[in-house]
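Morning run. Coffee first, then this:
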Amino acid sequence: MESINQQVWRALQTDPAVMRDLQRKLINTRALAKYLIQKYELKVSLDAIISSIRRFPLDAHQEVEKTLQHIFADSIVSTKNNMACITVRMEPHQAFSRLCTLSLPVMRMTTGTEEVKILVENSQADKIAKLFKNPEIERDLSEIHVTVAEKATKTKGVLARISAEIALANINVHEVCICPPEFLIYVSEKDIVKAHERIIALTKE
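And here it is:
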């Protein structure tokens, strides 16, 4: 069972907005403790939560943030609209064999044990969907392509930092493809401008 410190620290680390305000010393500790008790239904005293917040290793967290800032400073960020995601319920090797029958432009894929997601341009979606039974097609997506410094492959928290920036803008991530040092994030086209701004902001910090 997690200790009070572990529960509180995990709650802090999973809330990018709170962490940012803590680092900037813009947050009231007592108000934050009340917020955590209410949100996570913590069955401990207010003073215990305040104590855990004050013991949070903020210096260590800030060192990690500094490392990430250096990585993102040299990033290359690009976007692409008119993307679609096709989901098929099939084992990956079966999907691969069918896709090999087509001559396609650039295509991204993510696989689970029983599902495959294929990310292509909208114009190619119907052609691919015909290869499968009852595929699900999600259209009008945009791709954010982030290429970070090579050392990112040995640095923890890179994807979490990208995701946190997008979450702070209240944007839902539909799909993610990762092949470090490249990260591809898919969002709704209506959100692409705001999401792109947030990622670019990472490179300027």
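DSSP finds nine helices and six strands in the chain. Good start to the day.
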